[in-house]
Amino acid sequence: MKTYDAIVIGGGPGGYVCAIRLGQLKQKTLCIEKEEVGGVCLNWGCIPSKALIAAAHTYEKMHSMGTMGIKVGSVEHDPNAMQDWKEGIVKRLTGGVRGLLKSNGADLMAGTAKIVSPNRVEVTKADGSVETIEATKGIVLATGSSTIEIPSFKFDGKQIIGAKEAVSLREVPKRMLVIGGGVIGLELGMVYQAFGAELVVVEALPTLLTGVDQDCVKVVERRIQKRGGKIYKNAKAMGYEKQADGSLAVKIDIEGKPETIVTDMVLVAVGMRPNSRGIGLENVGVNVDKRGFVPADEFGRTNVPSIYSIGDLSGPPMLAHKASKEGEIIAEVIAGHKAAKDWACIPGAIFTDPEIATAGLTAEEAQAKGIEVTVGKFPFAALGKAMAMMETDGFVKVVTDKKTKQVLGVHIVGPEASTMISEGALALEMAAFAEDLALTIHPHPTLGEAFMEAAAHAMGAAVHIVNR
């Protein structure tokens, strides 16, 4: 029987990062992956979708270049060439991960892993052979999550699809209906809307992007509608019938009122489910909650001390950067170093058009905690750099404690929001005050000036907009 210090089950952004860090810490490590290293994120999630989003944004912007005095002639898109380009990026990244694992001394094994004891894993390989491997210090569960399928909309890979298929379309549908107004649905729905698809979004809850600052969300909603898209809230997709012409007649219930929407493709984007089944947790008594998550303490340990849980499996937020950070921390713990999950916030980035990015509390969340707040806000429409980019929709919002002026949250909707939010996350991590941000000199002309002005606005001292 092969023996390792640590076994990592799953080679996604949590698992491979954990394995690499374990290798750096001189721990003999095995990473087991049943499909391709990189997991959902690299293969059909974060990276492929962002490649398509970048292409869609460029394509749309090319149509407005005449305003800048740039004549580009006919602008066309080639879905096949786009997919080939995207797949090239994925191939380079997954190959890079394999190289990093090897160069840091971590072994990689292809197969399906199952826990058979607190320190042993059974791996079934593609040829059907089975191998049992022991871990002397710990087993890390980094199995990620999978797309949730609705019984009345079972995937067929062609017209009823999930995110995995949506990032690989080699033909843009004329009409697309998205079930679910969350991150995945809006990101991918807006990609194909930019390429000409008629978009319909059906959301069961009263708001899109539940939990996100709704002022930010409204900016994205307006962009969808300005492009001709339709949004139905408090609505449920009940089922569909295939028409003689190949289209789909989707039955919708909108607050008790039935309606039928004809479309060519349905993207089901109602969320992700943790991959906790079939990995042997019941064999060793690992606790699994009612939603399928495997809870872990501040050191990543489950109720079975030798077994750790990270990433999507350990619970929300289901974000790649959260998984990676947990992977690093748990590697330190297994190696005997002092480490724990200790952060002020986990920032989020939503790659709609325009982008939304968040860190910390919304004003509503702070008020629910009994904290009186002051909100500072600066619109990109008042910013020279945004005007020069012809991207003036949106704003930066800074939420502060009314008494102390400490920064409680930052919410951005607009150009490069995903890049700008790192300053917000740093402000929260360092327990910054509005004055700290306002007094920090930001270079001009940049988008980051909006951050400085929003903080000043929270103090009643903004220069380039009227203070309340």
TrEMBL record:
GO terms for cellular component: cytoplasm. Its cofactor is FAD. Belongs to the class-I pyridine nucleotide-disulfide oxidoreductase family. The lineage of its organism: Bacteria, Pseudomonadati, Myxococcota, Polyangia, Polyangiales. This is Dihydrolipoyl dehydrogenase. Disulfide bonds join C41-C46. FAD binds at K50, T143, G144, S145, D312, M318, L319, A320, H321. Binds 1 FAD per subunit. The active site is a redox-active disulfide bond. NAD(+) binds at G180, G181, G182, V183, I184, G185, L186, E187, E203, G271. InterPro entries: Class-I_Pyr_Nuc-Dis_Oxidored (IPR050151), FAD/NAD-bd_sf (IPR036188), FAD/NAD-binding_dom (IPR023753), FAD/NAD-linked_Rdtase_dimer_sf (IPR016156), Lipoamide_DH (IPR006258), Pyr_nuc-diS_OxRdtase (IPR001100), Pyr_nucl-diS_OxRdtase_dimer (IPR004099), Pyr_OxRdtase_I_AS (IPR012999). The active site is at H444 (proton acceptor).
